[in-house]
Amino acid sequence: MVLRVRTLTPAEHLAFLESRESASFLQTPAWGEVKREWRAESVGWVDAGDEGEKVIGAGLVLYRRLPRMRRSLAYLPEGPVIDWTDGDLSRWLTPLIEHVGAQGAFGIRMGPPVITRRWSAATVKAALAEEGSAPRTLGEVTPDHSDHTALAVADQLRSLGWRPPAENASGFAAGQPRYVFQLPLEDRDEKAVLAGMNQLWRRNIKKATKAGVEVSRGTADDLPAFHQLYVETARRDHFTPRPLAYFVTMFRALNAENPERAKLYLAHHEGELAAATIGVQVGTHAWYSYGASSTAKRDVRPSNALQWEMIRDALSSGARVYDLRGITDTMDESDSHFGLLQFKLGTGGEAAEYLGEWDLPISRLLYSAFDLYMRRRG
Question: Which UniProt key words apply to this protein (predicted)?
Fold first, then answer.
């Protein structure tokens, strides 16, 4: 079977994704509308057989122009959506390289949606409890599961000239997170999920209810209130907030594809907005995407109440995974990122490591110039 890559219409792209169990929301046609600073193109792998042309793979390519040049970096966040178990990935990647090269790309960056290792909450907690020689990173902890097929993907990519992720790419500095925290939902009900949480999480959910925290679904009209709280959170946690227009565009674009794709959750206490979150779902995979909370209302645990409502919604919609998104691989309790892992561990889920983002320079000179430019931007 000889594959070729061609441009897909948004409708063709979406139809392919809907034929699958799930795919990252970063690989939907709508995400190209969200990332307006990039030029977006839907591409598809097609096989022209006896029954006519059939799309058997797809990807959202985002092109970022090199300053003062007509050449671009081609970026496929958490994609493309192809058969990563194929023993000959060159059949898929070579026509992609040719296609984006013809579009003026000097290099490609992609994030194969392939998980290599998983650590249960119990395993991570046991490692943290070790005295004296406690590991400082997840990578030092023996995983509960290693996927040898995924590791073979890494070997293939290296042999094809792709550059692996940097050894220090465990944080959030660039691209998509390599380490995430996920809560499995398949064959579980609310009672089982709640029982799997630690005592603190269950107590905080009960505390929020007892304190009178009320959780509801918001609409696009509630985004300004969410954003005001989000900006407060950014000041408290020392990160740069996205503008309101970004969330308005995200909400509109994702829900134009599917009215249940992006959801806004609001937690009120005594008439005041105490916390808010944005969740996204594609097929059987649900994500916690953005969160915001009031410093003054943290003691009534609105964030736990929101997470529990999002998990319950994911269960009722048939999701098999509730994804709390990125963590770093730190196991150092003095690290500022450790609290994020600690919070997510309480759900009773599991830490997972993806292959990370891989680069292929098409023009090494221009790729090096772009890499230098991005490093200087910080």
Answer: Acyltransferase, Cell shape, Cell wall biogenesis/degradation, Peptidoglycan synthesis, Transferase
